[in-house]
Amino acid sequence: MKFLSLVWSNLKRKKTRTALTLLSVFVAFVLFGLLCAIKEAFTAGVTMAGADRLISRHKVSLIMTLPVTYGPRMEAIDGVDLATHWTWFNGIYQDEPKNFFGSFPVEPISFLEMYPEYTLPEDQLKAWLNTRTGAVVGTTLVERFQWKIGDRIPLKSPIWPREGDEAWEFDIVGIYGTTENRGDPSGFFFRYDYFDEGRVNGKGEVGWYMVRVADPDRADEIAAAIDAEFANSPYETKTEPEGAFAQGFVQQMGNIGAMLVAILSAVFFTILLVAGNTMAQSVRERTEELGVLKAMGFSNGLVLSLVLAESCVIALLGGLAGLGVAWAITAGGSPVPDMLPVFFLPKPYLVIGVGLALGLGLIAGIFPAIQAMRLQVADALRRNA
Amino acid sequence: MSESNGVLVRVENVEKNFQRGSEKVHVLSGLNLEVPDGTFLALMGPSGSGKSTLLNLIGGLDRPTTGSVEVGGDRIDKLSGRQLAAWRARHIGFIFQFYNLLPVLTAERNVELPLLLTHLSKSERRKHVETALDVVGLSHRTRHYPRQLSGGEQQRVGIARAIVTDPTLLLCDEPTGDLDRKSGDDILELLQALNRDHGKTIVMVTHDPHASARASHTVYLDKGQLSLEPPE
Ligand SMILES: Nc1ncnc2c1ncn2[C@@H]1O[C@H](COP(=O)(O)OP(=O)(O)O)[C@@H](O)[C@H]1O
Ligand SMILES: [Mg+2]
Fold it and tell me: Domain residues for A221?
């Protein structure tokens, strides 16, 4: 501890240089935190996926539909607990394509049972069941458009025109929440029966099914059984675990994860050079001083530790400040809730960040520290003689 | 440190060579020296004659190529690097021509440095630092940084730092070489007082006859050997 103030004094030697190094480490770690949050946002669907959930879709393409009658047939298969369906509605609000959000006709009871992460107050569920035109809306969507319960929302769908060429009209009867950062709080869900009755074409068709299995260990086997059930029909299915589906979706998005890792690697490599150069310079300038410390009896190991400590203090100060700011930014919620509804910095990344900062300090400091350790006192002192 | 027959430093048959590229530089060749306890010895000689080299050997900063160096009964040429560091911390105070203070530390924190290697508490360290700065007559400038002090004052801080652990042996390499006559005289007086009143044994490298006149003994180094007479 008594040596820490010595380390601290050394950092104040070249204040500008120390400040600039701190600043670059700081910026790198803000970036690290934000990119981690973005990566998390993109892969949220994957980690959100329940291990016990399968997704069953048309074998040819996700945009091709399946009969609504498949639901009971799936539930009849051994090991299947529950099936519920989704359909892509693509509702457009106020004729403005920019006002995009995910909207889906669903079957309320089985849907909410399938997704325990979506929470809806009891009385609002009752209202939904009692209101044919009822819709429940996520918290961020409500915020975005300043909606409230009781509002009537007209939506047009380019896929699903309504009989009479009118806009679909929905009454907001509930606002759902999401728990533990799972689930998408920007969705718009309404009743399938109202939708099916009103649409011009495709009656009796749904987009895809979510299937819950009783025993996740048997998921693959049950997926195969479902596909076998509908084989050789006009509507063959492809069933896979929800996680695999979401993962595939993310991969389609250009392998965001790998891209972010590449960016971060470049950033940290640069920072390593910056910090390493700072330390190397600072040791070079201090050759005589280090020699004097050794003459006084500072051991080689102690000198090594002092240089490493200096490097680690810079990295940790800059790193912690950067992580703190990144955390504060993400704690404020998503800046683009419609694009990235799930946006936060999970704790494990903070721990990784602190580890990275420490690693950065050690690696940036190790070569100058070894150089300082190897310094021969007599040589170091002869420099000025 | 146990003295043998009142001799604090005994250098026997020391040879010291340096390798400079492919060339071997013979600096000390079969050198012998005994420094009795309580001596103030001046070590003179032309530039490049090996005065600093010899001082480094006595202070355990370097090892002889052959021969032995015994200080206070310890064969320091036999000690490992780590042992030497600990040994220096306990027994030696170095004073340098260019003071070699840490510019980022105040006078008192510079003086405190060697005490960081001891088990003394913060308040004990402060007491020792106060005493040392008092001895060199700098009690009033403890919070100043080196750049705020004159050369003479900086050298006093350097001396306070050398004596703060109360070592037996002070090794000074041209301690007045960078000072004007007046400040130099003050420093020499201070060294004399440390020798006379505090019982410090001092080996001082200098090529200033004025400085050597203050010492109790003078030896001359030339062509790798010591003599009691100045070289022609
Ligand atoms: N580490 C070293 N490597 C090579 N040559 C050295 C080294 N240290 C000292 N020398 C040489 O040894 C000789 C004596 O040096 P030094 O002891 O510094 O002389 P002085 O202090 O008497 O001026 C010089 O020629 C010097 O160049
Ligand atoms: Mg010299």
Answer: 47-252
